[in-house]
Amino acid sequence: MKALAVRAAGLAGAFAAGAMAAHLAHIPRLARLTADLQRSRERILATREEERRRLRHDLHDGLGPTLAGLAMSLDAARLTLAGEPELIGPVLGELRDRLATTVGQIRELAHGLRPPALDDLGLVAAIEALADGCCDRVDVRFDGDRADLPAAVEVAAYRIVEEALANVRKHASAGALLVQLARDADDLTIMIADSGVGLPEPPRGAGPPRTGGLARMREWAAEVGGGCAVTSRPGAGTVVSARLPLAVPGYHRAFTGEGERT
């Protein structure tokens, strides 16, 4: 009995040592994953802050002075109409041209915040419009309930598909394209698959691209707590897959003002 106990204790010790060794072996990988996640968050925050800075600059230094100048032009037009009404035509023509330019600037700002097609057409029809003419054969599908998607998820989905289709148009030389969206209780999943030439093989040892369209798609997915992956083989097409959680982190609190209850 004593020998059996000793043997059992030895086996338990060996098992514990093996488990500890396996745990220690995973620590460097976990550390790398944590560091990659931290860098990804930092890039997202930097991108978001840069976008806010650009928007503030456009409003404060661009649109603001333009509107102030239009107000002064209206005053000048009023004085011209009162004193020299025969000269009012050219003044009003110039004012109209400046107003048209200002409207265009406002539309560009609004498009940067949320694509108007989402409000005008809805997500599916907006994606169909994006994909129209992209390839000889285009198929856009949506499985599940289309109603009441979170606004942030709609924008992320639209931007990811928009970027993926831009890459297809520029590089894929594809004859067929499938855009499939599926909604379940927790997520919206997206797949964009083409029959084109595929992506070139990256250099040996190179990590995932950190700039350009592929990186932007990953950032748009990460902003809503999701992920995006791109798989491709030369000559066998490219597949972009994304998962966007419907419960966007911070979305409820940010848009309702409610916090977590403890």
TrEMBL record:
Sequence ranges assigned to domain Signal transduction histidine kinase subgroup 3 dimerisation and phosphoacceptor in this UniProt record: 51-118
EC supergroup of this enzyme: transferase
Taxonomy, superkingdom: Bacteria
Its EC number(s): 2.7.13.3
Record's keyword annotation contains Thylakoid: no
Domain Histidine kinase/HSP90-like ATPase: 154-247
Reactions mediated catalytically: ATP + protein L-histidine = ADP + protein N-phospho-L-histidine
Lineage of the species this protein comes from: Bacteria, Bacillati, Actinomycetota, Actinomycetes, Streptosporangiales
Signal peptide location: 1-21
Record keywords: ATP-binding, Kinase, Nucleotide-binding, Phosphoprotein, Signal, Transferase, Two-component regulatory system
SUPFAM superfamilies reported in the protein's UniProt record: ATPase domain of HSP90 chaperone/DNA topoisomerase II/histidine kinase
This protein's name: histidine kinase
GO CC, one annotated term: membrane
TM region(s), chain numbering: none
GO molecular function: ATP binding; phosphorelay sensor kinase activity; protein dimerization activity
Entries under CDD domains matching the protein: HATPase_UhpB-NarQ-NarX-like
